[in-house]
Write a structure and sequence with these properties.
With 181 residues, this protein is mostly helical. Helix 3 crosses helix 4 and helix 6 packs antiparallel against helix 7. About 3% of the residues have low confidence.
């Protein structure tokens, strides 16, 4: 993508470069968009694995680590993609990272109850978009603070969503849980 925009890359271009046939490609991916999603999600999950981040649905430290990884991944991706960013690539990147965050959060919410009228999927989706949106806005902020300094404000914004999504109540219990960490 450094020499050709994502818009103009074809599946044939990808298979030629990878040295595989189109049938093999389609055995694994429905189209070039699903390949990109897998690449983005794989990169983000690799970063989480390297940092030993596991989210159990209640731990503010794990939520902090997910937020920090999101900021770091966005910085890394922004730097690497600066030569190939185009109109089609950025929304696909956004969706891929949000989906990876959502999967990570959902894994920690398995077996937990959601607030009445909601599902854990809805809670995880809201939290994932909140984390990603706040981190992306931070990335676009001129003279932004270091990632380590933005994590706590984002956590204060997002943790009530996460905590309510695992059957917790809001209010002082959240503050106590965050301070205890």
């Amino acid at each position: 993508m450094r020499s050709t925009s994502f818009d103009t890359i074809s599946v044939q271009d990808i298979t030629d470069l990878a040295g595989v046939n189109r049938a093999t490609f389609y055995d694994h991916y429905t189209d070039k968009f699903s390949l990109l999603d897998a690449m983005v999600a794989g990169g983000f999950h690799k970063m989480l694995a390297e940092r030993n981040v596991l989210f159990d649905g209640t731990c503010p430290m794990a939520a902090r680590a997910i937020i920090l990884a999101t900021c770091d991944y966005l910085m890394q991706s922004h730097h690497e993609a600066s030569s190939c960013v185009n109109s089609a690539f950025e929304p696909l990147m956004d969706a891929g990272v949000v989906a990876a965050i959502r999967r990570t959060l959902l894994h920690g919410m398995q077996g937990k109850s959601a607030p009445e009228g909601l599902t854990t999927e809805i809670v995880a989706t809201a939290a994932a978009w909140s984390i990603y949106g706040a981190a992306k806005q931070w990335l676009q902020t001129p003279e932004r603070v270091p990632p380590s300094e933005i994590v706590e404000p984002i956590l204060k914004l997002v943790f009530p969503i996460l905590y309510s999504g695992v059957g917790g109540s809001t209010g002082e219990h959240i503050e106590e849980s965050m301070v205890a960490q």
